[in-house]
Specification:
Blueprint (H helix, E strand, L loop, with lengths): L14 H7 L4 H14 L4 E7 L13 E8 L2 H11 L11 E5 L12 E6 L9 H10 L1 E12 L4 H8 L13 E4 L2 E3 L2 H10 L2 E9 L5 H6 L2 H11 L11 E8 L29 E2 L3 E3 L6 E5 L2 E3 L5
Parallel strand pairs: 1-2, 1-4, 2-3, 3-13, 4-5
Antiparallel strand pairs: 5-9, 6-7, 8-9, 10-11, 11-12, 12-13
Helix pairs in contact: 2-8
């Protein structure tokens, strides 16, 4: 099996509760909801949600017929099931398909999804171009990809750098790892990577303009988020907020032969060990007849992290 970059694993974490529900992040959540509403297609067939965590954003993709909820942590996916409902993973395609997998080794056949999102996950990627390349490989021609990234070129980091309180330069293109497996990215670097992979960026929205503790304490979250929504379109001109959303589309000039959408869940997958697309669905695992790998199916979750 090919070595992949290190993974930030939220297994056993109470991230949804401690960070989002009890961490004073209502403003950020509402502001992100506004950005997603403006960028998402109204409907679609098959959505891939990368780094879904406990399913915070998943209900916002309700216009899609089927949603693959992917995270590395099975405990995060179990929390998503509590919110969204557990689906029978065998047989025909349910509304939600829960998959535990490494974004660097996506277990999906090529060119399947007509949309994908990756919100608050790229900042954990030590090799962002590799992760983005994996995502590009599973998207159909003309598919929409909504990406959120942590912005290295935000106003706070610029001021700290000018005042000598920060040693890394926010104007250079390379990512900065400010905490282990937590990266900020330069907007131009993101645009360059997406362009090389055959994406065209259609829209950019800057998010969390008012991520200041004092403002969040004195102004109700819904008002602050509404104000944020008014400023978000300025992302087309400049990007100085801590969070940036982009809507990218797979170039239509891609001349691949389009296959039909999968009807059964097993038709989604390829073996992440050998790449074989003829997988077999068993009672408690997915089997690869090419390399004899077995991938567990436990509690309604397809687990492609390690072979059993």
């Amino acid at each position: 099996m090919t070595n992949t970059p290190p993974v930030c694993n939220y297994e056993g974490s109470d991230y949804q509760q401690s960070f989002w529900e009890q961490g004073g992040r209502e403003y950020e959540d509402r502001a992100e909801a506004i950005a997603l509403k403006k960028l998402l297609p109204a409907s679609g067939k098959l959505m891939l949600e990368l780094g879904a965590g406990a399913g915070r954003n998943t209900p916002r993709y309700a216009g899609f017929e089927h949603i693959v909820v992917l995270d590395y942590s099975t405990t995060q996916l179990a929390q998503a099931q509590e919110k969204l409902g557990r689906s029978d993973p065998l047989g025909v395609m349910p509304k939600y398909i829960y998959v535990a997998a490494d974004i660097y080794r996506l277990p999906f056949r090529d060119r399947q999804f007509d949309a994908a999102t990756m919100i608050r996950a790229l900042h954990h990627m030590a090799d962002a171009p590799k992760a983005l390349s994996q995502i590009r490989g599973v998207l159909r021609s003309n598919a929409i990809f909504i990406l959120e990234y942590a912005n290295k070129l935000n106003l706070k980091s610029i001021l700290r750098y000018w005042l000598g309180k920060q040693d890394w330069n926010p104007f250079t293109l390379e990512p900065v790892e400010f905490v282990k497996l937590n990266f900020d990215f330069h907007p131009r670097a993101i645009r360059n990577w997406l362009g090389k992979l055959g994406f065209s960026i259609e829209k950019t929205r800057t998010v969390s303009h008012f991520r200041l503790g004092l403002l969040k304490r004195i102004i109700p979250a819904k008002w602050l988020a509404a104000l944020d929504g008014l400023f978000q379109p300025t992302g087309t001109l400049w990007q100085f907020t801590p969070s940036v959303f982009v809507k990218a589309r797979v170039d239509e000039k891609d001349s691949e032969t389009m296959s039909s959408f999968p009807v059964r869940v097993i038709e989604l997958f390829k073996c992440p060990a050998c790449g074989n697309e003829k997988m077999e669905e068993k009672k408690d695992h997915v089997y690869c007849p090419n390399c004899q790998a077995k991938w567990a199916v436990r509690e309604g979750i397809y687990d492609f992290r390690e072979k059993v």
